[in-house]
Amino acid sequence: xxxxxxxxxxxxxxxxxxxxxxxxxxxxxxxxxxxxxxxxxxxxxxxxxxxxxxxxxxxxxxxxxxxxxxxxxxxxxxxxxxxxxxxxxxxxxxxxxxxxxxxxxxxxxxx
Length: 111
Description:
Blueprint: H1 6-18, H2 28-38, H3 46-49, H4 55-68, H5 74-89, H6 97-101
C-alpha cells in the first residue's frame, strides 16, 4: 500500500491548490515560472508606481509661489502675453472666445 488512493491524491492536490503550492511534481524550469507568478505583479510594487514625484503637488506649489512672487516662469509669462495679445487684437476664434473671457481658462491665469 505504498501508493496513495485516488481520494488521498485528489485531497493532496486540493490542499496544494488552497495553500498556493505546486499540485504536481514539477521540474526546475516550471518552478521558475511558478515562482514568477507567485510574486507580486510589477505594476503593484511600490518601487514601480512611486518612481516619479507627485507632479500635481509640485505644479500647485509652483503656482502658489508664482502668485506670491517667489518664482517666475518664462514659459507661463509668454503664455500670459499671448492670451492677452490675442484678446486685445480681437483675433480670437469665436468658439475660443469664452476661454479669454473666462479668467480661469487662460493658461496663464490657472495659477
